[in-house]
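Hey all, sorry for the wall of text incoming. These are the two entities for the joint prediction.
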Amino acid sequence: MTGLVVAVHGGAAIAASKGSGDDGAPWWLTLVVGFVALAGTIFSAVSAQQTTRKSANLDRLDNRLESMELDKWRHREETMRMLRWASEKAIDPVDNVRLLGIAALGALGESELLQREDQELIDRVIDAILQGAVAEYHEAGGPGDVEVVEDGAE
Amino acid sequence: MAQSDGQSSKKRIVVSSAEVAAAKLKVERAKASGRDVDSATQAIADAKKDR
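and here's what came out:
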């Protein structure tokens, strides 16, 4: 008896024809089975190769993302250090130093690395600088009653 | 720190360059984020140089 065994393993179809062609199996069936088996083996090999390549690409992508994250984290650390420095300068008793701090705060405020809480810190520092002048403005009567001038003495 | 000078009919407040710079920055940031600015901050930002 001719037995036809088709084994499917990992996407590959392995077909084998048992017995000889003399005991009734048509020659074309043997050919088709052989072709299917060959195609299955090739498909399996190509698939395995693609999986390996994809896996390697994913590893490379992972490494690159990790590296980018690390870079971003380092930049943010540096930005936070500068934010602290600028905040300290912005409340310095010396006017020129305060100007430097305020300019640095303005530049940092445009950084994409700052998060919302960091932006609020900049707002709070600005409010702290303006607190006295704003209070005095309102005490003096507010709009219409007050003329604000910048100290011309350098 | 701001200083007052009440010689004219309007009360005069003298502010430092740093206060003007801070007010300008606050106005700029408020405009960028679509927030309103209080009149005091706007007045300080618009302060003319004292002669």
